[in-house]
Amino acid sequence: MAGSPLLEMRGIDKWFGGVHAVSDVSFDVRAGEVHALVGENGAGKSTLVRVLSGAVSADAGEIVLGGKTLRLRSPRDAERAGIAMIHQELSLCPNMTVAENTALGSEPTGPLRLLSYKRMNDHAAQLLDQLNLPLDVNRPVETFNIATQQMIEVAKVLARDAKLIVMDEPTSALTEDETDRLFRIIRDLRERGVGLVYITHRMEEIYELADRVTVMRDARWIGTANAADLPPSQLIEWMVGRRIETLFPKRDVTLGEEVLAVRNATLTAPDGTGRLLVDHVSLGVRAGEILGLGGLRGSGNSELLGTVFGQFGSAGSAEITLRGRRVEIRSPAQALANGIALLTNDRKTTGLVLSMSVLHNMTLASLGRMGPPGLISPGREVTEAGPLRDRLAVKAASLDIEVSSLSGGNQQKVALAKWLMTEPDVLLLDEPTRGVDVGAKAEIYQLMNDLAASGKAIMLITSELPELVEMSDRILVFHRGAVTAELRGDDMTQEKVMAAAMSEVAHHA
Amino acid sequence: MPDNEAVAPPEEPPPELPLSSARRVLVFLGQNRGITALLAVMLAGVLFTPQPKATAPFAVAMIQKVTGTGEPGGEGPPLFLTGNLHSSVLYEYAEYGILATGMTLVILTGGIDLSVGSVLGMAAMLFCWLHIAKGYPAGAALLGGVGIGAICGYANGWLVSRLGLQPFVATLAMMVAARGVAKVISGGAKISPGAFGWYHIQGGDPAFMAWMTYPTFGGFLRPVTVLFVVTIATVALVVKYTRFGRHLYAIGGNEEAARLSGVPVGASKTLAYVLCGALSGLAGVCNASRMMLGDPEAGSTYELDAIAAVVIGGTSLAGGRGSMVFTVLGTLIIGYINKILSINAVAEAYRLLAKGLIIVIAVVIQGRQKAK
Predict the structure, then answer these.
(1) Which residue of chain B comes nearest to A46, CA vs CA?
(2) How far apart are CA B153 and CA B158, in angstroms?
(3) Among B143, B210, B283, B372, which is disulfide-ready with B95 (CB 3.0 to 4.6 Å)?
(4) Looking at residue B345, what DSSP letter applies?
């Protein structure tokens, strides 16, 4: 399976201003292997692959692909050399068709150099065929779900005859099922002798997929090993530089009264079909409780949180009772006024205002008490935000720098800080640890436990099953907009959650 | 795509080297390119304006004097170092400055207001019609001008935040419609004292309009200029120290995240357009006072200068980034460059060309700054 080195990166070094982003790192990929590149956020792996893709140029070091030393001045150079990147953020043009996307930049032309749609469509169909994806190549990309879009991205890369493919957390937006499909494609690519660099934060993916693993930490190379020879404890130690004994801290639960009760929550799909994304769901959360909401993407768990929070306006409805008092929530502003906070599952598009400072993001939802009515006292903001920054251990050079310059984990902490500043009674957490490194994850878990212990009611959604199972006191599993199982105590296992989440799928299959 | 890892701040900032005061000034100027650009323009002003009673630019005159190759003829400091020039720039560009102030509010939300020039014209017409033709007191007429501007702004805001029209389209419609209304008010004629027999004010300049444009303060500042300074200072404080101001940045930076943080997105946007419209109305009154008449064509293409001032200052057209200080700088840069060019009798055609170049240069420099 593993062959000669396809790619060699030797002594790569890169500085950004005063930050040493990559320090003398060497890395190689063989043809026909999946090489996992792992490390905490900020470890330098993204910079390393950006050097490889020509997006940034290294200060020192050389890149050899198939025996030829490459001089990469732009992503186009890398593409010509046969290096392809698949980003977390997809690089498709959503309004264009599948065929137009896969052909982008190398459109087949006919007489008079006019576009040949026939050849374009045929080629696209043929590519999708290789991936066992029978899609209508004339449909705009935006009409497909994220998972399919990702496959289209793979097809686009195949169209360019890539020898080496870099995938940066490709499964972060995929369901289990879709992940399996992607893995089949990755294995298929490996069979064909393509070299793959696979960046991930998910332990199980490393062991399921990777032939070799390289760990980076603090911009440096820490180690490379065959995945089969590297026990998970060793891998984590390499990543964090210390042993994490208990990733999920234990706690004693004392449940209080029911804080939030939701009856008959419904959400109508915006596509005009009248389909219910949330189908008459009722549930309750008690003070001190962490209620896990399991289910695959699109199962309605995330949509339920949004409905409770008033995110969808009149499309959603629910009878909401807070500490025994009926409240009307039609907008996020009303939800906030009633002590409900929602940490959304995508900090970049719905969580943070990236162009604003750390401080201004932290106070955005609490401006009402930052001064006399209508006014803001900057001094007050700093005194309110300072302690919260310390409590969450947000690593930022100053409160005044733009939040976009922080690492993913610290951005997430800022988003969390924004909601904690509103002093909510009910915290709705949708993927609170997505894209967050192991160390920050443990800190967020501890914080969740502390918040629950202080009497807050928490609802938690996470696509990482161990996290859901370990953190929750009780789990409701969603499927097709409804709750299909309630799990407690010893019944809360990853297998049972998965089974409930897929039950109907299994019936249909 | 921003690379989080690459730009993650170091745990400890690198030790700062001791800087000489000269270097510190350079560092400050490097970080504040707006101020640097304004200072450069001012230096150019000193070098390229002639001395009184002369025609050759100061720099040329000095060279001639030193080398003895010509007879400069002038004496004393160049025009740029006399108070009058600054007084007149601050006066003539006050209208642009007031427009740019309102425009900044709208641009911060990620919108744009193309109607400010037309609204200015309409407000100038209404003000003159009320005051000159109908004989209403100047204060009431001024309120009328500002009020109709605010109404136009409200309409813009309603189209944008309630009907969901793109700001460009909504305000383009208003730009055309308001110009129409400006012409309807007087049937297309200019309104000046005594233009028609039935006008209330027949001869001489209306007292209020004359006062607005007379250097009342220290023989140097005119009320119009003071109005500009007060307006921009007030709005600068509003932007920095009110919830409304903060909301503008949040909406321009990420509207959905702002909404989910409880920001009243629609109301804030609408208020931004209302203020922009009201300020356009105010600029209209200033314009009428400066011209001593109401011109239905007043303010044509002013929207472009207002946008240019905002952009040259460095406020991002994408929204969410910028400040009123930037807008002051942008307005002054445009004003001074125009003045220097016109003193040197550069033809209008070339002045426009120069302005175009300046916009491009300013934006390129800002882009570089951000990319760092």
Answers:
(1) B5
(2) 8
(3) B283
(4) T
Q: Is-contact A125 A137, C-beta < 8 A?
A: yes
- Classify A483 as helix, strand or coil: strand
User: How far is the C-alpha of A447 from the C-alpha of A497, rounded, in Å?
Assistant: 24
State whether residue A249 sits within 8 Å of chain B by CB.
Answer: no
Instruction: State whether A349 and B254 contact (CB < 8 Å).
Output: yes
A368/B243 CB distance under 8 A: yes
Contact (CB<8Å) B4/A406: yes
Cα four-point dihedral sign A470, A471, A473, A474: negative
Rounded to the nearest angstrom, the minimum Cα separation between B248 and chain A is 11
Tokens matching residue B15 = 């030790």
Closest CA of chain B from A492, distance in Å: 32
Residue A101 CB neighbours (<10 A): 24
Query: What are B60's two structure tokens?
Result: 């040329």
- Report how far apart, in Å, the C-alpha atoms of B276 and of each of B50, B283, B320 are: 38, 10, 17
CA distances from B169 to A65, B157, B269 (A): 51, 12, 16
A 111-170 near B (Cβ less than 8 A): none
Closest CA relative to residue B281, chosen from B136, B116, B91, B140:
B116
Taking alpha carbons only, the member of A87, A18, A17 closest to residue A52 is A87
Please identify among residues 292-321 of chain A the ones whose CB lies closer than 8 Å to any CB of chain B.
309, 311
Nearest residue to B331 via CA among B229, B252, B240: B229
B243 closest CB neighbour out of A376, A378, A396: A376
Structure tokens at A112: 């008079």
- Interatomic CA distance for residues A472 and A494, integer angstroms: 12
Full strand arrangement of the beta sheet holding A5-16: A19-30, A5-16, A60-65, A68-70
ipTM above 0.85?
no
Q: Which residue of B has its CA nearest to A367?
A: B243
Q: Would you write out chain A's pLDDT as a tens digit for each of its 509 residues?
A: 445 689 999 999 998 766 688 999 999 999 999 999 988 766 788 889 989 988 888 999 999 998 889 888 888 888 888 898 887 666 788 899 999 988 887 788 888 888 888 889 998 998 888 777 788 989 998 888 777 888 888 888 878 778 899 998 887 667 777 788 889 889 988 998 899 999 887 777 888 899 999 999 888 999 999 999 988 878 877 876 655 555 677 677 788 899 999 999 999 988 777 788 899 999 999 999 999 999 877 789 999 999 999 999 889 999 999 999 999 999 999 999 999 999 998 888 899 999 999 999 999 999 999 999 999 999 999 999 999 999 888 888 889 999 988 888 889 999 999 999 999 999 999 999 887 777 788 889 999 999 999 999 999 998 777 889 889 999 999 988 899 999 998 888 887 887 787 664 444 33
Q: CA of B223, closest CA in chain A: separation in Å?
A: 29
Distance of CA A455 to the CA centre of its chain: 29
The answer to whether the Cα torsion of A361, A366, A372, A374 is positive or negative is: positive
Long-range contacts of A499-506 (CB under 8 A, 24+ apart): A500/A294, A501/A294, A501/A295, A501/A296, A501/A299, A501/A477, A502/A176, A502/A177, A502/A296, A503/A479, A504/A479, A504/A480, A505/A177
**Helices and strands: H and E segment counts in chain B:** 16, 0
The 3 state secondary structure assigned to A304-355 is HHHHHCCCCHHHEEEEEEECCEEECCCCHHHHHHCCEEEECCCHHHHHCCCC
Residue A42 touches partner B, C-beta closer than 8 Å: yes
Q: How many residues does chain B have?
A: 372
Distance of CA A26 to the CA centre of its chain: 27
Q: Do B262 and A47 touch (CB under 8 A)?
A: no
Q: Which residues pair with A60 in a beta bridge?
A: A13
Interchain pair A353, B249: CB under 8 A: yes
Residues of B in Cβ contact (< 8 Å) with A355: 249, 252-254, 320-321
